[in-house]
Amino acid sequence: MLGNARFDGRKIDEIRKTTFERNFLKYPEGSVLVTQGNTKVIVTASVMENVPRFLQDTGSGWITAEYNMLPRATQSRNQRERDRKIKGRTHEIQRLIGRSMRAAFNYEKIGERTIRVDCDVIQADGGTRCASITGAFIAVFDAINFLYNEQRIYEFPDYKVTAAISLGIKNDTVLLDLNYEVDSKVDVDFNIVANEDFELIEIQGTAEGAPFNKEKLIEMLDLGQKGVKELVKAQKQVLNL
Description:
By secondary structure, the chain is α+β, with helices and mostly antiparallel strands. The chain has one domain: 2-Layer Sandwich (Ribosomal Protein S5, domain 2), CATH 3.30.230. The chain is built from 4 helices and 11 strands. The protein has helices at 88-104, 128-149, 180-183, 214-239, and strands at 6-7, 10-11, 18-22, 30-36, 39-48, 62-69, 114-123, 162-170, 173-176, 188-195, 200-207. Strands 3-4-5-7-6 form a 5-stranded mixed beta sheet. Strands 9-8-10-11 form a 4-stranded antiparallel beta sheet, sandwiched between helices. Strands 1-2 form a two-stranded antiparallel sheet. Helix 1 packs across helix 2 and helix 2 packs parallel to helix 4. The N and C termini lie far apart (38 Å).
């Protein structure tokens, strides 16, 4: 796999083919179908005219997120997650998506309302949390644009285009944008969330097998910057920024 410096037909520093189908659904204020390799995620952003209790009467808005994987998004069927049986992994991912969007947008300027992001994985082949974050930026941007065009806000909040990418280390080689086959075998699993200036929002890194050193960490950050830059370019193209 690594002898010719390629995996699944790509160079080790190439991201998977990534596309965004904007306004994918009719009813949400923002929606997008994200396709990253064989991973497909529908992301919607809904405007809710309320905020959590701790923000009531503050004039500030809020952005939050939920994440779900359809039962046959994977090779074998998984049980549906219900409100009382949401897995720890799901809680972790949806909190990550929410934090990432609150870092991307000056949400305090949307008025006392909530933008609720829903990320539904319809086909999983690695990197679902990263694809969800990258798509969520587009959906939230469109939801805020809806508020602006409807004159429910009079100034578009400050933002920085934000994306996420997965990386890994296998046999001492750093790989970019992992599909499931590779992700399930790496020695180190790594995710980066960053904005267009490569200001880091979150780093998740775990040694699944062999530990990694500072030099490999820097190498992953450098390669992650390349991946984020390419995703941001694609986001800007679809948003006409």
